[in-house]
Amino acid sequence: MTPTLEVHPAAAWADAVAAALTDRLRAWPRLRLCLPTGETPVSLYAALSASADAGLWSQATVVLLDDYVGLSADDPAAGGPRLRREIVDHVRPAVFIEIDQSGDLAAAARRHDEAARGLDLAIVGLGLNGHIGFNEPGSTADSATRVVDLHPRSREAAEGYGTEGAPERGITIGLARLLDARELWLLVTGVPKAEILRAALEGPETPDVPASYLRRHPSWRVMADDAAASLLGRADRWMTHRGDTVS
Q1: What is the pLDDT of residues 175-186, one digit of tens each?
Q2: What class does CATH assign to 4-232?
Q3: Is 131 one of the annotated active-site residues of the chain?
Q4: Which of 15, 129, 180, 195 is catalytic?
Q5: d(Cα 137, Cα 159) in Å, to the nearest integer?
Q6: Per-residue pLDDT for 57 more than 60?
Q7: How far is 16 from 176, CA to CA, in rounded Å?
Q8: Which of 126, 213, 235, 244 could link 141 by a cystine bridge, Cβ 3.0 to 4.6 Å?
Q9: Is the separation of the CB atoms in 116 and 179 below 8 Å?
Q10: pLDDT band with cut points at 50, 70 and 90 for residue 54
Q11: Which of 67, 75, 136, 183 is catalytic?
Q12: What is the pTM of this model?
């Protein structure tokens, strides 16, 4: 399916995405959504935290997209605590579902898959290697919520967050569950993501770029800044929203 492409100047991107999410919450007070960690959504979470209506999130359920395996709660790269710091503790949704890593990890993945069932909105970022969550290269559209071996670039990202010793595994909501969500938003910012965004949208559908499988979603939206969208083809290829700067 052709996505709706929304492109904004970098300085306006976070506020534009925050406004769109606020609109969703007003329309669907009991919204069930998954949220990612990473560098891309940091400015979005800051914008949401600064402008949060006290009651806007009060009936919403937030599900964590993915997490590294085996990190302590005070590790700066740990996904659940990081999402709490950046957004959850500020907007206070009714429910926040982290990934319970106690006991058997395969069982933990199955529990999290059940928690992610029936998502109204899946919000995901795009890795430099084309991953979505920790659906690393090699993942297919029917990939389940599972424990994965991390790609070297994903391990490097954890080191960038200040962890001591890069984790080797993660748990992620699978592409199959994400594609089941009622709506899906892909968030992409910055010049370093321009080439992989072009591959995801305009290259072949391939497990080498797991994000390319998002094209199968019947209602998905790419929300990029102008730098990330700079290598995309002509704007008339896309259904575009206000703020579009692709030429």
Answers
A1: 999 999 999 999
A2: alpha beta
A3: yes
A4: 129
A5: 20
A6: yes
A7: 28
A8: 213
A9: no
A10: low
A11: 136
A12: 0.94
